[in-house]
Amino acid sequence: MKKTLSVLTGALVATAVSATAAMAANTLDTVKARGELLCGASTGLPGFSLPDEKGNWTGLDADTCRAVAAAVLGDANKVKFIPLTAKERFTALQSGEIDVLSRNTTWTHTRDTSLGLNFAGVNYYDGQGFMVQKELGVKSALELDGASVCIQAGTTTELNLADYFKLNGMKFSPVVYDTSDQTVQGFAAGRCDILTSDQSQLYALRSKLDDPSKAVVLPEVISKEPLGPVVRQGDDQWFNIVKWTLFALVNAEEMGVTSANAADMLKSKNPGVQRLVGTSGDAGAKLGLGANWAYDAIKQVGNYGEMFDRNVGPKTPLQISRGLNALWSKGGLQYAPPVR
């Protein structure tokens, strides 16, 4: 009986993976026929994906989808954003409800190998941290033994939290919520002592507090959280399109190509710039796109640095410095293979 159940279970998993691969096979054709990119976003995270009062989505993750839409459809506005909780996001992608997931999602071994999904790169290097009320007087996460912790279900933060407290011989009481908004509301209402999440998300959630100055993000970073867009396995062409659109934005920053000067760069004598903006070479054709795929993305959305500064940078409410997300040539980790 056990052997039979094992065989049946394996067959079901194989069937599910095969169905996902079959569904993924023609994503580019599907998007072109529809005339719109379906982008899985968060339920509302400032700086990453958040609708304003008019329903216009802003944020680093939202702009990543806009860049893909510009590269594929020639129009960065041809995106429909579909808000998803952390628990819903992977199922929505697997089922074909969305074409790409761009929702502060951490690239991990399990997610990359067992869900039928591919991570197309990293648009934000992050790490998990802790936020506390200043009045508690806590200066370090090592002072949190016995604390109650607000945490979002379906995220990597749950395992990271358990590992960190166990490693340091501390105990905690989890207070679990389904959405990030619920976690910050619980924190503000005093239902937990601390809130844990990726540090970028902590800064975003702090901005939602009535008085953000009363909360502080502790210095400890307890994990690696490389965040980036995700697609279904089984469609290498679509995987390459999303991946190379992100790479194009990073390369554009390195080469000094911006939304403001992109048109002038069409006249550039720099061979690397020429390949990037499509005045030479066949980079677009190799992706199944037009020659101006990267040019459209850069012109309409901006290079990676512009996206970062506009959405989460020092002059935004989040006030995040480039840090690890600076270009590799400026001490950061953002590095893209060349377009050649």
Number of helical stretches of at least 4 residues: 14
CATH superfamily annotation of the largest domain: Periplasmic binding protein-like II
Order of helix and strand elements from N to C terminus: HHEEEHEHEHEEEEHEHEHEEEHHHHHH
Distance between the termini: 56 Å
The Cα radius of gyration reads 21 Å
The helix content, as a percent range, equals 40-55%
Give the total of beta strands.
14
Q: How many domains is the backbone divided into?
A: 2
The CATH architecture name of the largest domain reads 3-Layer(aba) Sandwich
- Would you give the CATH topology of the largest domain? D-Maltodextrin-Binding Protein, domain 2
The SS-based structural class is alpha/beta
The backbone outline, from C-alpha atoms, is: globular
Q: Please state how the strands of the largest beta sheet are arranged side by side.
A: 10-9-11-8-12
